[in-house]
Each structure stands twice: as structure tokens, then as C-alpha cells.
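Problem: given the chain below (198 residues), write out its structure.
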Amino acid sequence: LWLRELPSTWRSALRGVVSKVRKFLTVAGMTDSLSSAGHGGYQLRLPPDVLVDVEHAWTAVETAEQALCIGDPARAVTLAESSRAVAARPFLPDLKGQWVDTIRHGLGKALLYALCVLSEGYARLGQHYLAIRAAEDAIALEPFREQTYQLLMRMHSLAGNPAEALRVYHCCRRLLVDELGVEPTAETATLYLQLLRQ
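Solution.
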């Protein structure tokens, strides 16, 4: 609640926060969910059917990856879209602090993985435009991640546009050389050569 030192009025401020939480829970129909836990603490007991969206983002994308592995791209896409819907939302945008940054970082990773699963899933369903779009969104999140460029190259190739796939390779190579002074990995270069042979 406080970034550094406790304010002198922290007790009354904390009571105000707890009051807001109680009000929210009452409106949500969970009046008895928050109780005093002794020693000045509180305990939140949520009903078993309550979904914690931050946890759902990870669970959904992990299940989506499993669905892809067993050959169920439609289910993978549904789950990955659900994960993306949560992970793309800003997490407590008005707050600062290490714990907030940690959760934001985790949600960013969940969003990246959801986009990669979406790209693969849409491609397997023959929806190449959506597959390409998801891969491009993933690159926008982490522009130095080579695996995502490989994904986009494959998506363009599957869509019947090898020239665009080759262009993606050159964009990736130029970025890595100009910004980091390194060449693409052997895996990326091999994919590029395969596309050239095609």
C-alpha cells in the first residue's frame, strides 16, 4: 500500500482501504468473505467458484499449449484468446512497487505466450491472416526475441507468401546487427535458407 515508509496516519488509512474492500465485497454478494484474522490482520475467504483473472491468464495459456500438442487447435485458440483478454489489460495502472512490477512482468510473459499459441492455432485452422497478426503482436511485445521472428516467417510461408517471410528475416537480422552487434542464431538462419530453397 505504501512504497517506502508508513505514513503517520497509516492505521486510519488502512481502515479506509479495508472499508472499501468490504463495500466492494458486499456489492459483489460476498458479505462474509473478509474477516478479522487477529493480530490486526484480515483474511479473505473467497467462494470456490471465484476466478482470479491473473492466475487464469497463466492456466489458460498452459492448457492452450497442451491442446495444441494433442492436435486440438480450436480449443487452443479459445483458451489462448481468453488468456490474452486478461493479460493484455493494464494491471493496477495507478500503483507502483516491486510486487506490482512482478505481476505486470508475469502478465507480459503470459500475453507473449498466448500470442504465440494463437499464431500456431490459427495457422492450423487455416486462418493465416490471424496467425500472422498474432505473431506480429508478439514481436511488438519483445522485438529481440528471435523465436517470434521464426514464427512469423513460418506463418508467412504457410500463407503462401515466402517473399514476406524472407523480408521478416532481413528485418530481424538488421535489428540484431544494428542494435546488438550479433547475427541471428543458426536456427533462424537455417529457416531462412529453407525458405530460399523453396
